[in-house]
TrEMBL record, chain A:
PANTHER family: ACYL-COA DEHYDROGENASE, ACYL-COA DEHYDROGENASE FADE29. One of its GO terms (molecular function) is oxidoreductase activity, acting on the CH-CH group of donors. Its cofactor is FAD. The keyword Zinc does not apply. Residues 233-395 form the Acyl-CoA dehydrogenase/oxidase C-terminal domain. GO terms for cellular component: plasma membrane. Belongs to the acyl-CoA dehydrogenase family. This is Acyl-CoA dehydrogenase. Keywords: FAD, Flavoprotein, Oxidoreductase. Residues 127-221 form the Acyl-CoA oxidase/dehydrogenase middle domain. The keyword Oxidoreductase applies. Residues 7-123 form the Acyl-CoA dehydrogenase/oxidase N-terminal domain.
TrEMBL record, chain B:
It comes from Bradyrhizobium jicamae. Its cofactor is FAD. Residues 234-361 form the Acyl-CoA dehydrogenase/oxidase C-terminal domain. PANTHER family: ACYL-COA DEHYDROGENASE, ACYL-COA DEHYDROGENASE FADE28. Residues 6-117 form the Acyl-CoA dehydrogenase/oxidase N-terminal domain. This is Pimeloyl-CoA dehydrogenase small subunit.
Length: 398, 377
């Protein structure tokens, strides 16, 4: 056993570092640091996606015949860790990490040929249509209907918490194509062009002051049957496959470490009156650092199992739980570190396009919004309560 | 980067698991609890035959040249059975101190005796006023014409009464820490022996004018604090692995109990509040496993990284252990607080784990201080 990377992997690490140094502009870096929501705005995120695509790194997790870079699990780890350390923008996760793997796994040849290159190049921007006003944790109760009419489905209903629906030109959605005894069996997975007549989008502002999520309404929206992925009634299986990716595939510890470093740097600076000299702050800093070490080690254990072709088991729920809780602990510490400056409210978004000099140092602006937005970490992608249900069932066999 | 077990490590785990599950029954534990030694010399002999006592000792000194990973594999199995043999004192700490500090002659003399099972060691370092600060030692070592004279008091000396030699830390006239080999029964050495929380035995020592020959000092007289820190860091990594074995056993037994025990016409495990508690216990067991492995992997790293990993692991596993232990008792209901189940024995061993070498708060502070964040107590 050993924790170190071999010479080949270290050479790859250097290649990633060099690539980032050459392609991450100061503007991108600043915009990312000043983005308090989960996702970067598309102008920033897609610029980075295009740079990655030029290098052939547009979709790290995809198989090589669909344009993936054919990396080992260790290379993916190194890539994610270096990206987090450098503070690169978030790319369109809903495209690359969510719908992409589903299309690769279950889509038709035509769907693969059409959609996958457009995700890689950044031509398409995707959003996810899962939750509904009446179907949150109980996702399988969803009611948005897709009724067959010749070669089309006619869709009626509404989706909610749709991240970046106001930026997206495409949505992948779970819709009800059948009333079945087991409600999971009546769900299909469908790809929707957001410009189709009958789709309207309503913004939802969240408590951090950001417009990230939306409600999307479908009023007799006509979608070709050819846009359905896989079989009718199998959408739940495909959707769950994707959720496993959403929960587990992210290598989260590197990002958490970067977020803690940001707070730690603030705490050691005169800007916060050296908050680190408060023993409670210093102690919590160590507690969180140890929690990140723990999560990192668990991720490395999973990685090592994957490298040797073993099944890591039902750990994605464990990783999601800890990642979200640690993220919240970091942002909570951030608010305590900046003290009175946390009272300052800056309503303008995005923060990186602020025209006037703010009333507090710029780097403090995202701290409170990050804490407020961060409350969603234990809610989206299956709430912590649902994750504990899954652990009880899948890990403990209850 | 590879965290999978080698074939040899897998075999070691299998043989340790098998040995412990066959030998360390509840009956055996009850019998040994009343034993004045606190463990079985027959089993210690078997440890030697299995090669376990030679594990971390270098091949040049009759050992197998293994490391913290192999120790961790054994300790996790020991945790499952609440093994009370003086493995930590003799093999993990004792052999580490001798290997780091001893002269070549001392290594040639002592290490093979550890490996073949003929020498049991104890480490007498803690003192009442020091709490868990490894640098605070008031016991004195005065140079005499023939050698050394030791005076002082030591607390919580694990396996002290069983040891043929006790490694005693003491401060000499020029302020350096030295490690001295004190034979059992030395004149001026008084031992107050007691059963230890969670199994095994320990003692408090009074040293009053204990006369030692010059070669009782381990090594060449340079300050022993770095070696003590290294040995204690390795001990904490090993104890972390042992705690993982204990926690996993508690989780397994509690899970089983909540499936069988029925109230209001259904098993306890049908209630979401119970299921979520068990999910948290499973999660904390897994976190402890990650941190014990991390501390073992860093056991030979440079001192700051090694100590931060060891303290981080001790702090984190300590918290997880308290949670899993307390919830195991809670979910067993009134049965959990009786001596009729094994739960209480495992609970007490975890409490002892959390205390040994300092609890979570102490180690979060050490972790912070080593990371450049000084915390005033």
């Amino acid at each position: 056993m050993d924790l170190t990377f071999n010479a080949e992997e270290r050479a790859f690490e250097k290649e990633v570092r060099d690539f980032i140094a050459a392609n991450l502009t100061p503007e991108m870096k600043r915009a990312t640091a000043l983005t308090p929501s989960v996702f970067s705005d598309p102008d920033i995120g897609m610029a980075w996606q295009r740079a990655l695509h030029r290098k052939g790194w547009g979709a790290p997790g995809w198989p090589v015949d669909h344009g993936g870079p054919d990396w080992t699990p260790a290379q993916r780890w190194i890539f994610e860790a270096e990206c987090a350390r450098a503070g690169v923008p978030n790319v369109n996760v809903m495209g690359v990490k969510m719908v992409g793997p589903v299309i690769i796994g279950f889509g038709s040849p035509e769907q693969k040929n059409f959609y996958l290159p457009r995700i890689l190049s950044g031509e398409d921007y995707w959003c996810q249509g899962y939750s509904e006003p009446g179907s949150g944790s109980d996702l399988a109760s969803l009611k948005t209907r897709a009724v067959r009419d010749g070669d089309d489905y006619i869709i009626n209903g509404t989706k909610i918490w749709t991240t970046h629906a106001h930026h997206a030109n495409r949505m992948f959605a779970l819709v009800r194509t059948n009333e079945t005894e087991r409600q999971q069996d009546g769900i299909s997975f469908i790809l929707i062009d957001m410009k189709t007549t009958g789709i309207t989008t309503r913004p939802i502002l969240t408590i951090g002051g950001d417009h990230e999520v939306n409600q999307v309404f479908f009023d007799d929206v006509r979608v070709p049957v050819a846009n359905r992925v896989g079989e009718e009634g199998k959408g739940w299986t495909y959707g769950k496959y994707l959720l496993e990716f959403e929960r587990g595939a992210g290598i989260a510890s590197a990002k958490l470490r970067d977020a803690l470093k940001t707070i730690s740097d603030l705490a050691e600076s005169e800007v916060t009156g050296r908050a680190i000299d408060d023993p409670d702050i210093a102690m919590r800093m160590s507690e969180i650092e140890v929690d990140i070490d723990t999560l990192e080690m668990t991720e490395l254990r999973v990685l090592s199992a994957l490298q040797t072709g073993q099944n890591p088991g039902a750990v994605s729920s464990l990783l999601k739980l800890r990642n979200s809780e640690i993220r919240q602990a970091v942002t909570r510490l951030g608010v305590d570190v900046i003290g009175n400056d946390g009272l300052y409210v800056e309503p303008v978004r995005p923060l990186y396009r602020l025209n006037e000099t703010p009333g507090i140092p710029e780097e403090l602006l995202p701290v409170v919004p990050e804490y407020l937005n961060g409350r969603a970490y234990t809610i989206f992608g299956g709430s912590s309560e649902i994750q504990r249900d899954i652990v009880a069932k899948m890990v403990l066999g209850l | 980067m590879d965290l999978t077990l080698s074939d040899e490590q897998r075999l070691l785990r299998e043989s340790a698991d098998r040995f412990v599950s066959e030998t360390y029954t509840a009956d055996h534990r009850r019998k040994i609890a009343g034993d004045p030694l606190g463990f079985s010399t027959n089993i210690w002999k078997q440890f030697a035959d299995l090669g376990w006592l030679a594990l971390p000792i270098s091949e040049a000194h009759g050992g197998l040249g293994g490391g913290a990973i192999e120790i961790g594999i054994l300790m996790e199995a020991f945790g499952r059975g609440l093994v009370s043999e003086p493995y930590l004192s003799t093999v993990v700490i004792g052999a580490s101190l001798i290997s780091e500090c001893g002269t070549e002659a001392q290594k040639q003399d002592l290490l093979p005796k550890i490996a073949d099972g003929s020498l049991v060691l104890a480490f007498a370092h803690s003192e009442r006023q020091a709490r868990f600060d490894l640098a605070k030692v008031a016991t004195s070592a005065k140079k005499t014409p023939d050698g050394w004279r030791l005076d002082g008091h030591k607390t919580a000396v694990l396996d002290g009464s069983a040891a043929g030699q006790i490694i005693v830390s003491a401060r000499n006239d020029d302020g350096k820490l030295g490690l001295f080999l004190v034979p059992r029964g030395a004149a001026g050495l008084t031992s107050r022996d007691f059963p230890r929380l969670g199994g095994g035995r320990a003692c408090n020592l009074d040293l009053s004018g204990v006369q030692l020959p010059a070669d009782a000092l381990l090594g060449d007289g340079s300050d022993a604090l770095p070696a003590i820190e290294a040995a204690v860091d390795r001990a904490m990594a090993a104890l972390g692995a042992e705690a993982v074995g204990i926690m996993q056993t508690l989780l397994d037994q509690t899970l089983e109990y909540t499936k069988i025990r029925k109230q209001f016409g259904r098993p306890l495990s049908a209630n979401q509040v119970i299921r979520h508690r068990l999910a948290d216990m499973a999660m904390q067991c897994d976190e402890a496993r990650s941190m014990a492995l991390r501390a073992a992997l860093m056991a030979d790293a440079e001192p700051v990284a090694r100590s931060r990993a060891a303290s981080g692991a001790k702090a984190k596993i300590g918290r997880c252990a308290r949670f899993v232990a307390e919830q195991s008792v809670q979910l067993h209901g009134a049965m959990g607080v009786t001596e009729e189940l094994d739960i209480g024995s495992y609970f007490k061993r975890l409490l002892a784990f959390d205390t040994l070498f300092g609890g979570s708060a102490h180690h979060y502070r050490r972790h912070a201080a080593l990371g450049g964040r000084a915390i005033q107590a």
